[in-house]
Amino acid sequence: MHIAEAARQIRIQDLKLVHYAGAGHIGGDLSAIDILATLYGAVLNVTPDTVDDPERDRFILSKGHVAGILYTTLAAFGFLPVAELATFLKPLSALNGHPNRRKVPGVEASTGPLGHGLPIAVGHALSAKLDVSRRRTYVLVGDGELQEGSNWEAMMAASHHELDRLTVIVDRNRLQQGATVRETNDLEALDQKAAAFGFAVVEVNGHDHGELLDVLSSIPFRPGKPTFVIAHTHKGHPISFMSNNAVWHHRVPNPDELQRALNELGATA
Amino acid sequence: MTRTLSAAEHSLSDRPRFDCRNAYVDTLVELAGADHRIVGVVNDSVGSSKLEAFKKAFPDRLINVGIAEQDMVGVAAGLANGGRIPFVSAASCFLTARAMEQIKADVAYSDRNVKLCGMSPGMAYGELGPTHHSIEDIAWLRAIDNIVVVVPADPIETAAAMRWAAATEGPVFIRVSRMSVPQIYADDYTFQPGKAITVRAGDDVTIISNGTVLWRALVAAEQLAADGISARVISMPTVKPLDVDAVVAAAGETRASSPPRRPPRPARSAARWPRPSCSTTRYG
After folding, report:
1. What is the pTM (predicted TM-score) of this model?
2. Nearest residue to B153 via CA among B72, B75, B235
3. Taking burial as the number of CB atoms within 10 A of a residue's CB, which of A113, A188, B25, B161 is the most buried?
């Protein structure tokens, strides 16, 4: 399936998921989906049959609150039954508000508290280096999440150990829970900070599958250095009334809003 | 079978004493030699964890993340994701307090095969002051679901607990003392998780202890014996899961758990025993 079409279908599924569950993080889901669709559709060396293969590539979703988009992506690529999505957030469901690696096949780390995924990714990349393995490690962090100091501890270690098969992808949507990152605790100059921490830095349009594919499939971007991809995105993309609007961090679309969003994606409820 | 040293062998106050960290590193080198998956993860704590011998034997397998405890525990979880068995060695005060959320989420909740080794716990860093004391670690760790909490009492038990932890899948916290203790257990001691050990028989009262305090509990029992009080000493190396059966049995079998058979003695030590079924020594 073409990545763009996969991303469109995952968006449709995710909008319904959040609407029917009555909760979720639709804004952050929609900003990250093109990154996930590109990774699972064309980059990661992992399939539903190889989720336990030691040599699989790892993808760690550090911004665990967008679990909905991880579940819909995993379902789209066959890691879990699409029908299971209907249990999202329900009692006893495996599909909790934050991903649980013990319950959901394909989930590499139980995340939710922010600032955890990057250290775990560094640990996995170290294990790959010890094994002299070519398996790769990708971790998706939110930009607001980079306010957690543990990320910077891990980034120091990543460059110190020259983990050039580790890729940090920042979902740079510039919004956090209730305000812009700039208003809250500004990250700029993020590219210079990451470069100063020893990373090869590259900026892409985080909604352009071609740009994402080019960068994410050409790791290491610079030999001997971990890669830091600043993926410029919009929360709520591409829904006109959701895009770049902090209200949609965790607002749930009502039936009318769902219909309008689906119409924009060329789908019906 | 677990054998403890006899009373004659004990005379604990006069016996040579050992820093359990030496047993820790000797055992880690031994385990790592037999299993390539084992790695050390430290926060600039090679010296304070006495890991020089490990570093010399396995330089590539000692991962020093620098002074960064959250990263250290997250990295350990990631190493476990990659099939390694990390032994995280760091001062217990920093390992547990600084990285508590990583221990909870990345290790315990995630069920990662990570061994957390809290060095120099309790009041071991006494002169360094309360910032470096680790008197909360056991209480914190035992409140977290899905992690075994072990507090060894001597070098033999430290080594035995490590061998068990290395051979067992899942999260484990082991507290490793730097305060010198005499050898309590025989060389062939085998660690049994979740099992209490009666290290001294007694009928009147029960003392339950572990860690660096266990040998002092045995000395106290000797002193009580001189006062005519027969004290049972139970070692409880596994704080979680707790051997509840052993506690209940002791409560039923020793005198402090039921109305006295004879009037309380005025003797100083006897008068200290409280009404509850058993007295638990303080950790560290």
Report:
1. 0.91
2. B235
3. B161
